[in-house]
Design brief:
Elements (H helix, E strand, L loop, with lengths): L1 E6 L2 H14 L2 H24 L9 H22 L1 H12 L1 H7 L4 E6 L3 E6 L5 E5 L5 E5 L2 E6 L2 E6 L6 H20 L7 H27 L18 H4 L10 H21 L17
Helix pairs in contact: 1-4, 2-3
Length: about 290
Amino acid sequence: MREYHFELVPDDYHSWIRFQMRRGGQQKKKMFAFLLYGVLVVIMIWQQLNPKGGAARDPKQALFSLGLAVAVGLVLFFGMSEKHQEKLIFRKSGVDRAAREGTLPRITLQVDDECLRASQEGQPHVQLISYRDILSVEDFERILLLCSGKEYQVIPKSAFPDEDAQKEFREFIEAKIADARENPDKYKTLAELKAGEKEARAAEKAAANDAVQDEAAPGNGASTSGADEDGEIGADEASITRVNTSGMGKLGKIAHMVAADAGEEHQEAAPSDGAPQDGEEHHGED
């Protein structure tokens, strides 16, 4: 099993944001916005060159319209620029503050022949990734991405000691993807992986509960139930006869307690070889 430990630094997040913007059709949105802007500019110019009712052209109005078109174009260009969008997204993400405070998440990625498991330090949740769900491995700037439809597992290239290790990892994943496509029955689905993890956690919990019960059981040296160092129960405990006093009433319970105390005093006074003798269990009636 391969295991990788890494921390996504701000530069890795910048690469991730740029990848999302390009993969999310940001270029198409930008082209559509500028096309719409061009149409509006053409309409404004046409209106200035062909005033209604044959009125004379107003140079001031034309200059104002031209200035307005330029201002709108600058605002549109700045607002739709990739760098501006990237800064806005990065600022809202809170990554910069987490980097300053030293609270960036540390990720552990475990890779074996069955699946991939990604976990965050200090968090109990484990993200399972089936080879049947991975569509491709993308190499983009500072990061590698395991693409599963609209979901991605981001792995910084800094997680690998050198380029050879990075290449080996990528070839291993791509080989698993190809094998999962040709032989899907060899690999579990995400639902099957989650069910297996749930059963494993339940088994671990049951084993832990059994261990606690074993430690608390009499005779293992961990309880104070009267057992000696060898785990054997003493004669005094073995000779106790338990009586149900739930139906005796308050006075009956008090009488039973007094009789029991008297019986204990009688047993302390009589010689015993560690086993109850005939006639000893009279609950204080001797």
